[in-house]
Amino acid sequence: MKLSGTHAFPAPRERVWQFLNDPQRLAKCIPGCGPLETVGENEYTAEINVGIAAVKGSYKGKVKLEDLQPPKHYRIVIDGKGKQGFIKGSGTLDLEEEGAGTLLRYAGDAQIGGPLASVGQRMIDGAAKTMLTQFFTAMEAEVTAAPGEVARQGVFLNFWRAFLKKLRELFGKRAAF
């Protein structure tokens, strides 16, 4: 499975970089993720609960950040296993200044095996895109919150933000929702 795309954040590149390197804040934004536990330099373990169609399960794995080039680039390597299968993959995150904001470019490749792979590539791709949308929506709320402010999070709130953003993209910036 290959994933790639971009997401614009209305926050300075340094703030986005700091967020992407903060395991506590990052874990709050990854759908179904428990705490990221530090096991080495730029290496973490985590447990994530994922459900795709009838295949639901808990996966334990490692996440490692490599090739760090602050505040613009890193490579992420993941390796996870659960009763429903496994996932291995890697990808890159690149941050570019875009006016007062930041453009995040991501690209990656993952291999999925076991019963999880049996649900079909199209269903897995759809679930991955949904999880990315949820993640970026939550991340945007976190990086745009004022220092010390608690970002309002939640499945329904993040869904609503993503829905309104998509409407604005479809109907133009003049639409007042």
Overall shape: globular
Mean pLDDT rating: 85
Radius of gyration of CA atoms, rounded to a whole number: 16 Å
Straight-line N-to-C gap: 35 Å
> Can you list the strand order of the major beta sheet?
1-7-6-5-4-3-2
The ordered H/E elements are: EHHEEEEEEHH
Structural class by secondary-structure content: alpha+beta
Helix % is 25-40%
List the uncertain runs: none
The profile of the biggest β sheet is: 7 strands, antiparallel
Number of helices: 4
List keywords for this structure.
single chain, 177 residues, alpha+beta, 7-stranded antiparallel sheet, 4 helices, 32% helix, globular
Verbal overview:
- The chain is 32% helix and 42% strand.
- Helix 2 (23-29) packs across helix 3 (121-144) and helix 3 crosses helix 4 (155-171).
- The chain is built from 4 helices and 7 strands.
- The protein has a 7-stranded antiparallel sheet with strand order 1-7-6-5-4-3-2, with helices on one face.
- The mean pLDDT is 85.
- Strand 3 (43-52) and strand 4 form a beta hairpin.
- It is an alpha+beta fold and 177 residues long.
